[in-house]
């Protein structure tokens, strides 16, 4: 009796299967960096778009109020002084920061309606408002925390004011104080050094008596009320806003709490905790009161390796976003020219730009 021939089952051999798996793994390894780069490019674009929204909000605010919002509001020089005034920095109530004043122009009226800007931000009535997390103010590339945080002192202990600790909503965007910084120095100490020539590093001592306006040369500072017409260096040539990732230090949209501080999340030979003003403001340098470990003045653009809590800092590969006074945005490289950065940090120093960002 004859039987039908059997057919051997066809399929992959073990060697062939291993080769296919190796090829798939290689393709994934080749494609993954491209996918990650594309995702980061999208996050960077979104971050720049959010900064532009802030820039447009500044324009709408200035159009309505005929001035920009203050860097933060503080009854620092009243007579008699507020009992809640910080004895060193002279930061005082109400403390609201520049972003808080922009809320109605950022489609955040529900939060803005809960705020009385004449009442201290830490008042119990404001607790629901100041805890708000506003997605527009959080850079999608920042790996740091997104949740509200407790305001702390220089030692990292929670600040207690009017008998309570203060927890505030987070922001990844900061406003420019200019070249100079005057926060810890602009209070009980009546004088400070300022640069009179950034090209030759000339300085002079001036008397401020707590009036930051005689020191600050940027668009935002304590009790500032700058108008666009005062930005004589040109709106398109002046840095107004930028990034500061929570990976380095905490920043808030809410404002400044007397006695507060901004400790860094990681330390370097050049950085350390700074005054409460750096919860909402940064500066570009040089500043008369700020020298590096060799005694030279510091200019610190985005991601400069001093890693000061009072500088701009981003987690995008290669640089960070800034918003200029005309509400346009730029991606600034880590290796931006230092003098150009200083020139674009001031509003009316009459520097002539020989380069562009």
From TrEMBL:
This is Type II secretion system protein G. Coiled coil: none annotated. PANTHER family: GENERAL SECRETION PATHWAY PROTEIN G, TYPE II SECRETION SYSTEM PROTEIN H. Residues 36-337 form the DUF1559 domain. Pfam families: N_methyl (PF07963), SBP_bac_10 (PF07596). InterPro entries: DUF1559, N_methyl_site, Pilin-like, Pre_pil_HX9DG_C. SUPFAM superfamilies: Pili subunits. It comes from Pirellulimonas nuda. Residues 69-91 are annotated as: Disordered. NCBIfam families: IV_pilin_GFxxxE (TIGR02532), pre_pil_HX9DG (TIGR04294).
């Amino acid at each position: 009796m004859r039987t039908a021939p059997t057919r051997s089952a066809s399929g992959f051999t073990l060697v062939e299967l291993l080769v296919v798996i190796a090829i798939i793994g290689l393709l994934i390894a080749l494609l993954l960096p491209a996918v990650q780069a594309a995702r980061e490019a999208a996050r960077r674009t979104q971050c720049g778009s959010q900064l532009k929204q802030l820039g447009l909000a500044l324009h709408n605010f200035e159009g309505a109020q005929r001035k920009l919002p203050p860097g933060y509001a503080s009854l620092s020089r009243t007579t008699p002084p507020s009992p809640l005034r910080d004895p060193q920095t002279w930061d005082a109530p109400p403390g609201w920061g520049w972003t808080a004043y922009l809320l109605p122009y950022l489609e955040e009226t529900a939060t803005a309606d809960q705020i009385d800007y004449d009442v201290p931000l830490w008042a119990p009535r404001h607790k629901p408002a100041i805890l708000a997390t506003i997605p527009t103010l959080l850079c999608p590339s920042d790996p740091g925390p997104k949740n509200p945080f407790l305001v702390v002192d220089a030692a990292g202990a929670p600040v207690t004011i009017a008998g309570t600790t203060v927890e505030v909503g987070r922001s990844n965007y900061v406003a420019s104080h200019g070249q100079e910084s005057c926060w810890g120095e602009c209070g009980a100490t009546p004088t400070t050094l300022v640069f009179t020539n950034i090209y030759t590093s000339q300085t002079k001592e001036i008397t401020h008596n707590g009036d930051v306006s005689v020191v600050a040369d940027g668009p935002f500072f304590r009790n500032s009320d700058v108008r666009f017409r005062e930005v004589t260096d040109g709106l398109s040539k002046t840095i107004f806003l930028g990034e500061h990732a929570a990976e380095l230090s905490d920043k808030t949209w809410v404002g400044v709490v007397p006695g507060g501080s901004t400790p860094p999340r990681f330390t370097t030979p050049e950085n350390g905790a700074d005054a409460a003003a750096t919860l909402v403001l940064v500066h570009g340098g040089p500043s008369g009161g700020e020298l590096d470990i060799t005694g030279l003045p510091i200019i610190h653009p985005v991601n400069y390796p001093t890693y000061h809590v009072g500088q701009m800092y981003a987690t995008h590969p290669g640089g960070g976003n800034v918003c200029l006074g005309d509400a346009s945005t730029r991606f600034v490289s880590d290796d931006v020219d230092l003098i150009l950065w200083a020139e674009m940090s001031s509003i009316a120093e009459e520097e002539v730009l020989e380069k562009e960002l």
